[in-house]
Every structure is written in C-alpha cells, then in structure tokens.
Amino acid sequence: MIPRYTRPEMGRIWSEENGFQKWLDVEILAAEGLSKLGKVPKAAIARIRKKARFDVKRIRAIEAEVKHEIIAFLSAVAESIGDDARYLHAGMTSSDVMDTALAIQFKEASAILEQDIKDLMQVLRRQAHKYKRTVMIGRTHGVHAEPITFGLKLALWYQEMARHLERFRKAVDDICVGQISGAVGTFAQISPKVEAYVCKKSGLKPAPISNQIIQRDRHAYYFATLAIVASSLEKFAVEIRHLQRSEVREAEEPFTEGQKGSSAMPHKRNPILSENVSGMARLMRSYAMAAMENVPLWHERDISHSSVERVIAPDATIALDFMLRRMIYVLGNLCVYPENMKRNLAKSGGTVFSEKILLALVDKGMARDTAYRMVQRHALKVGKEGGDLKRELLADAEIRRYLSAEEIESAWGIEHHLANVDVIFRRVFG
C-alpha cells in the first residue's frame, strides 16, 4: 500500500486554531516577563493562565467589525479573562505577537522536515550500499559515457542531501528568532528583558535588532533553502523517470497490487509519483521567489508580506514534507533491474571503453589529437552501423603498430572503472 505522505501533525501546526494558540502563548509569556519586572501582579498571571480562552468564530465576528485581526483576537480573549486583560499586549505591537508566533510555527514545522531529510538519507545510504557494485552505463547528455554503478548514483544523492541537512539547519537557526520590541522596534514602551524572557521560553533567539517586524531576508533564506531541497528531489525524480522509460527500464517506481497505469492501455506502468514531485518542485521555487519579493517593505513595515506568508508558509512546509516522504517511499521500494543495466551497457559495442584505448595510444607516444581521431573514427562507425569496437581496432594496422592484441584486449572489462568505488564510499559515508 502506498503510505500517507503528509504528516497530519504538519497540517495541525498551520491550523487556524494553532496559529491563534501561538499568539496567546506569546501574549501570556510577555505578561509573565512583565511580572518578573514587577509590572504585572503575579496573581493576575495565574488568573490569566487559568481563564484565557478564545473561539475562532468569535474572533472572526469581531474582526468583521473592527477590521483588525490582532485587536479582534485580544477582544475575544478579554471576554474570557475580564479585567486582567489589561495586562496583555502592554507596550507591544501586532507584529511582536505575529512574527514571534510565526517563528515558533516554523520551528515546529522544521523539526518534522529535518526528520524527513534524515529519513531520506537513511534510505539512500541503505540503497547505495545494496547497489554499490551493480554496474550500469553512466550517461552524459543522455548518451552512453562510461560504466558506473547504481550505488554511486545513490551515494551522490546521499551526499547532496547531507549538504541540504547542513543548509537547512542554518536556515532554521536564522528564522527562529523572536521580537517583543514595540511599535517601531525601539523598546520605547517595553523592556528588552521581556523579549529575552519570551524568546527563551519559546525556544527562540531574540532578533538583535528589529523595526516593527523581523526582517524578511531571514524568511527568504529559509524558503530558498526549501526550494533548493525540492529541486534536488526533482533531480532524483527526473532520473527515475528516465530510467523507467521503456527503452531503458533499468529502474522504476513501485507498482502496487491493483494499481492501474492508464485508463486506455492496460500495459502502462507510469512514473506518476516522480512526476508529481517534479511538478511540486516548480511550486516550491515559486514560493522562494515570493519570499524574496517580501524583503523590500516600506520604511519600518508594511503588511504586503503578510498575505503572501499566509499562503507560502503552510504550503511550502507541507509540500516539502509531502515530497520528502514520497521520495522516501519511492527510493526505499525502487524496482531495480541489474540485467537490463548489463544489457544496455552491452549495446554500445564496446565504444564505452574508447577512453582507455585513447590513453593507451598516448602512453605509447602517439599525439593525443591523432589518437583521438583514430579511435573516434572507429567508434562512430560502430555507433552508426553496429558491430564491435574491439574488432575494428584489432583490424587497424596503424593502431596495431602501437598496441598489441593483448593490450587492446586489456582495455575491455569494467574492473578498472570500479577500482575506486570503495574509496568514494569511504569519502561519502566515512
């Protein structure tokens, strides 16, 4: 059975209910911070914690009148706690609440995404070792080049995801900052100590400086990082799509019992899971562009970024969670066909060993360009007409002046192409 791809908890992080709860958490922590400074009675904090509630429908009803979401939220909460509501939002501005709460949501969503990345790396490590010496043709420009192993391809992807893990952690560290600094970030009506208290309790760092918002270069960096991860997932997906082509069929997506590939053609097994990943990567890159457009705001703040983030924050994190988990499933259950890999490798008529002959001729004193042209002539003939490069070379008197039959024969075989596989694996996996 194909697993559920998106974690339910990711959706809950971005639910309307949780968003308002994070606002309430920040408001209460700020009041607590003020109480530590003797600005709010401790008894009031206890009452607020016990009684503070909100109802989403009530917030929206008030918002319809006041046309201001934070004011509507505070008014709805005030109905549950009474006179002690005066201790909430003291010296604060809307973005103090919204941006700090958003950072908490990013922190929670990022914990899920980091685990997804680690899980994909684990699958890639396992599969890379499984297919470490499964020989296949390497392709450049889509054309046969020289032999590699399928394990090397997967090890390459593992190392790429390892870089993404490092980048992602930096981006998370950059975006997990809070602010409680007042209307234009000067702390005119509230102490920086309150900000420090709220951030410590929320698992965030205080922004060293803010105006009315946390600066959106942080968010742009985060979304760009998500888009880069998504682009690598698309790279993996495109490779699987190519390997699944009927003319190649070296690997393909899992195809479950009862699954159908086409409404018209019963024989079809289509790489739909990988194609979905390719499509979603396009969305992810568009989210990164939108986040970059959010960086230049007017003066100390406008709200043009807010509407964008209400879409891209949940969408991008949920989409990447989906993509990562889908590729975990596809790569973990990939159908690999080593015999087809051998068959495709043999299709070249031995032309994939042309470089070894070229270098052997150079080693014997032939000018490189002369050697290249001689080997190329035979290789292109085999590619066009069929046949066997080794046989062509053995029949070339000029080449035989430099290379014996034994030396030409020794250029064939894949052993020297695999000689450093262990070295590469040690460099990647330790």
Under CATH at level 1, the class of the largest domain stands as Mainly Alpha
Taken as a percent bin, the fraction of beta residues is: under 5%
Shape: elongated
Average predicted confidence as pLDDT: 95
Task: Please outline the helices and strands.
Blueprint: H1 8-13, H2 16-36, H3 42-51, H4 56-66, H5 69-81, H6 94-130, E1 135-140, E2 143-149, H7 150-175, E3 177-178, H8 192-202, E4 205-206, H9 217-243, E5 251-252, H10 272-293, H11 304-332, E6 335-336, H12 338-346, H13 354-363, H14 368-385, H15 389-394, H16 397-400, H17 405-410, H18 421-429
Parallel strand pairs: 3-4
Antiparallel strand pairs: 1-2, 5-6
Describe this structure in words.
- This protein has 430 residues and is mainly α.
- The protein has 2 domains: 251 residues, Fumarase/aspartase (Central domain) (Fumarase C, Chain A, domain 2), CATH 1.20.200.10; 61 residues, Fumarase/aspartase (C-terminal domain) (Ribonucleotide Reductase Protein R1, domain 1).
- Helix content is 64%, strand content 5%.
- The chain has 18 helices and 6 strands.
- A two-stranded antiparallel sheet has the order 1-2. Strands 3-4 form a two-stranded parallel sheet.
- Helix 2 crosses helix 6 and helix 6 packs antiparallel against helix 7.
- The longest helix has 37 residues.
- The radius of gyration is 30 Å and the shape is elongated.
- The mean pLDDT is 95.
Top keywords for this entry?
elongated; two-stranded parallel sheet; 430 residues; Fumarase C, Chain A, domain 2; mainly alpha; 6 strands; Ribonucleotide Reductase Protein R1, domain 1
